[in-house]
Amino acid sequence: MISMILKGLLIGVIVSAPVGPIGILCIQRTLNGGKGHGISTALGATASDLLYAIIAAFSMSMVVDFIDSHRFILKIIGTIFVFFFGVYTYATNPVSKLKKMRGGNQNYIQDFVSSFLLTVTNPLVIFLFIALFTKYSYLTGETSFAETILGILFILMGACFWWTAVVGTVSHFRDRFNMRGLYVVNKGTGILLMCIAVISIIYFIIDQYCPFVLDHFSIPSST
């Protein structure tokens, strides 16, 4: 059981840790609105990851086959979503947002939903779960239903631990940011999201139609 707990926590952290669009957005919202907005954003991402963890754990082959056969178009759709979210973030005025928050209009539900949608548009994360389950012999075909549920809960705990640490750390330094700093963070977040999207689309297209180009950048084997 101890091994299962540690592996579940580790998988939860590994899936959540990469600094992608959601990580950047979570940091930006924490700086702009405080812990509540950072946590609600993180929970949206965690809910999406939890959904794909459940699919991977219960081997929904029909869903996996669909995702695998439409991998390229799903990558493009998800990346386009990230790009336009970056445009929206860049165009948003953090000062006016703060005024609304101070007026009592703190919509954590919008933070949660937008984060969930941004994450769920990348269903390829299901293959990351499958790879991690295989690597750590986690939730195998011999795992009982009750153990599978527990295993998924441990993954959820790992993800929550990671996001709590991120939001707590960023929130600790929040007071050092003035309005100018928040403005720069907002613009920087939008630019980063758009850059991530553009680079991702270029990579996907090259990988799909000219994979030999990427071979030139691969690290040669030492053997």
Q: How would you sum up this structure, described in words?
A:
It contains eleven helices and no strands. With 223 residues, the chain is mainly alpha-helical.
Structural key phrases:
223 residues, mainly alpha, globular, disordered C terminus
Number of helices: 11
Overall average residue pLDDT? 78
Structural class, from secondary structure content?
Answer: mainly alpha
What would you call the shape? Answer: globular
Portion of residues in helices?
over 70%
Got a strand count? 0
Order of helices and strands: HHHHHHHHHHH
Low-confidence stretches: 219-223
How much of the residues is beta strand, in percent? under 5%
Radius of gyration using CA atoms only:
19 Å
Give the termini distance in whole angstroms: 39 Å
Largest sheet: none
Task: Please sum up the structure shown.
80% of the residues lie in helices and 0% in strands. It is an all-alpha fold and 223 residues long. Helix 1 packs across helix 9, helix 2 packs antiparallel against helix 3 and helix 5 packs antiparallel against helix 10.
Question: Mind sketching the topology for me?
Answer:
Elements: H1 2-16, H2 21-33, H3 35-57, H4 61-69, H5 71-91, H6 94-102, H7 108-120, H8 125-135, H9 145-172, H10 179-209, H11 211-215
Helix pairs in contact: 1-9, 2-3, 2-9, 2-10, 3-7, 3-8, 3-9, 5-10
